[in-house]
Structure formats: structure tokens, C-alpha cells
Amino acid sequence: MFRPASRTAAGRLITIAAIGLLGTTLMSLLPFAVGFLPGIVENPLSETFPHLRSPSGRHIARALGVAGAIMLFWAWTAVHPSRVGRGRPRLQWGLLCLWGAPTLLAPPLQTADPWAYAAQGWILNQGRNPYDVPMGIPSPFSSGIFDSWLSTTTVYPPISLYIQGILVAITQEHPYWSVVAMRAIPVLAFIIIACVARPLARDMGIDPDVAVWIALLNPLVISQYLGGAHNDSLMSALIVLAIWLARRPGGLWWSALAIGLAAGVKQPAVLAGLGVALHAAWPRVQHLQRRWLGLTLRVAAAGAVGGGLFLAISYASDLGMGWANDTGGSPTLVISHTPVSWVSQLLIRGFGVPAEPVGAVGSVLTTITTIAAIVWVGKRHLPERTVAFTAGTLLAFGLLGAALQPWYPLWGGILLAWVHVRREWGLIIIAATGGLSVSAILQEFWSPAVTVPLCALAAAAWWWKSRGTFFGAPAPTSHPADVAQAARVE
């Protein structure tokens, strides 16, 4: 028999779980109304639900999608371990499976990237090189590719291309299920992260429940990585694995190999290489008299191993480094969440300025800003706080680049699950997560130049309201590190 208090707590958890499930369900309905669908799906869908893809139906689906994003964010904040209790891994895994389930068979959420993935895999399976052949050539998937990428070649490294080709082959080039099959990539990523999240949290002196809450239950992770079927998810998972391997026996070499694999999935993983190598090497050299020499040699060796694996995979595949071809897509071709792209698109589309010089200037400015940010992060966190440095480096690259999509902050944001963050910064990160989650769907209504400021204001309002109440009162302590540990949201 449950006590009344236990029944109340169980009922509240069921309500929270149901609201989160409803949220992801509403978001998963959105691409059926507004996204591209092949005729094999769209025709019977239109016959069964004739109003779903009508103008009014699309507006209703968009509104429900926004409501779903808000519901999922609310449910996520409601199951923070400080609110539902710690030491409940089964609850967290159950919520992850429940909330993620509605996305699994739906079209890609808020992105057309998986159609491009499938087209690239199809091209590879035809015995052609995706670095030479534009992804818009006639195929079962070309109609779903975003217009700006039709004439471009792929920018992804070989591991991504071969995974895409395998998934297309398994699903026999089906115009719908081959695209949905791309979700096998984030599912694999989630499994990798789930296996190491708690052990890594214990290594770092982090509450394992909070680490899982940040890294996997996160609404941005569920909606963008899983719902959007982005290959960035596997890159992130391999970086997390590399950080965990770094402190195991032979960790310098194993972590370097993991970074090489991650870079073979998507190139930004290269930026994690320095931080992961330092994470492996610093404990072994910090007490040596010539520790900086030892550190430099170890980091250089790790870079050679990881870089060597990346190059070996590239050339053994016979694809080479074609992802760097100038035929690949440029971030200036599309508008995104960064003000740099807003200005670029205004100049290109509004004033007729050629895209090439606009892109060049934008790239120079964002590169300078990103390098300056990474240097600042390094001065602040190195040499001891190597995971914080790795997270900060990837965040700087994701947030300050020439393009900013809603899932880019997850490159470094996931790693914050294993970083001690002060309470006030943690609350800002939670608010930003909610803002990005909603802004991603509001793009179905308006340009990011409108949605980003609106959602930033909403996130700021939530932050203001939640100050001093979200985590409860901090425990008395006299040591800053203890304050950070007690107040951590990552």
C-alpha cells in the first residue's frame, strides 16, 4: 500500500511524464503538416486527413508544435533531480524512452538534413563520389533536400557517408523509411552516452542524476538530435566517450582514437582534441619538474594518433578530403540563428551584394571572434579544468560561427553535464535551452531574426521568475568549489 504522500508523488510524476509525452507527440505531428513528404506518404495522409496539409491545418500544427515544445521544457524542468529526488536512474531512462518514442517514426523535425543524408548515401551506393556529385541529382530523396543545397556536394567526412549508405541500403532506398532510418544515428549516440554518463559523472565529482538530466533528458537533445536525426549526435557521443576513456589505462591513445572517429563523423570534433588530450595527460605530468614539456609531447602524440586515424579513414575509403571542396554548401546561403547570417542575407537578398565577398567577410569576422573566445576560455580554465575548456571551445565554435542552427550549441552544451557550473550560470543555460527549443519551431512562422529575439525575451522572463526558487536554498558552505558542486545544474 502506498502512503498518501507516496501516492501524491507518484501521481505528480505520471502527470509530468504525460505532459512531456504530449509535448513530443505534438512536435512530431508538425512535420506531417509542414514538412516535405514523398507521395507514398503524402497521398494517403491527405486522403485520410484532408485538412492536415491545408493552410489552416498547417497553422494549427505550428501552434500545437510550439505548445509541445513548451510542454516538454516544463516537464524537463519539473524532473530536475532536486525536485524528484536523486538515485532514480530507472525513472530517467524510462522518461527518455517515453519522451523520445513519438519522434522515432515521424519525418525529420524542423530540418531537411536527413533527406540530404539519404541522398548522399544513395549516391555513394551507386558507386559515385558524393564529394564530386551534387546531392540534388535525381534520386528517391532529392525532392526533400533544401533548395540551397541541391547544387552543392556533401561536406560530411567519410564515416557519416558510409553510415548513411548502409542505412539507405538496409531500407532498400525507400523514399520515406530510408530518411526515418537516419534516426539510428542519434539512437546509437544516445546508447553510447547512456553507457558512460554516470561513470564519467562519478569521475568528475558530479551528481550522475544531474548529468543524465542535462545530457539526455534535455528537450533540445530530444527534439533536435533525436527528432532531427542529426549526425552531430554521434560526434557528440564519441567526444563524451573520449573524455571518459581519457582517464582509463592507456587513455591518451584510446581517447585520441575516439576523437579521430568523431572527426570522421563531423569535423568540429577536431576542436575537442586538445581538451581531451589535456584531460588525459595533465594528471600524469602535473607533478613532474618539466611538466610543460611532458604535456606538450603527450598532446602532440595524441594529435598525431587522432589525426592519423582521421586521414587513414579518409584515404582508405577512396573518398579523400573532398568535403573541403569549394563545391560544398556555404553557411551564408541560408539564414540561421546568428545575427551574422541576418546581416549577410540582408546584404545578399536585399541589396544584391554578391554572396562570395559577403561570405568571406563574415567568415573572417566570425573566425577572429571564435579564436578570441577560445583563447579566453583557455586562460580561464586551463590546465586543470580540461572538460570545461573542451565544452567552452565547442560552444564558442558553435555559437560564434557564420551559421548557428538550434542544435549547434549542443556540441559543447552536452559536455556541460560533466562540468561544475555556478548556480546562476546554470539557470541561464536552462533558460537558453528552453528559448532555443521554442525558437526552432517558431521558425515555421517567422524568420530567426524575429524568433530569436522573441525567445530570448521569453527565456529572460523565465530566468527572472525562477531565480532563487528553481534549486531551492543553497546549503551552507565556506568553499567555492562546494558551492559550485551543491548548486550545479550540470
Automatic annotation (TrEMBL):
Principal subcellular localisation of the protein: membrane
GO cellular component, one term: plasma membrane
Pfam families (alphabetical): MptA_B_family
Protein keywords: Glycosyltransferase, Membrane, Transferase, Transmembrane, Transmembrane helix
Example GO molecular function: hexosyltransferase activity
Family assignment from sequence similarity: Belongs to the MptA/B family.
The protein, known as: Alpha-1,6-mannosyltransferase
Species this chain originates from: Propioniferax innocua
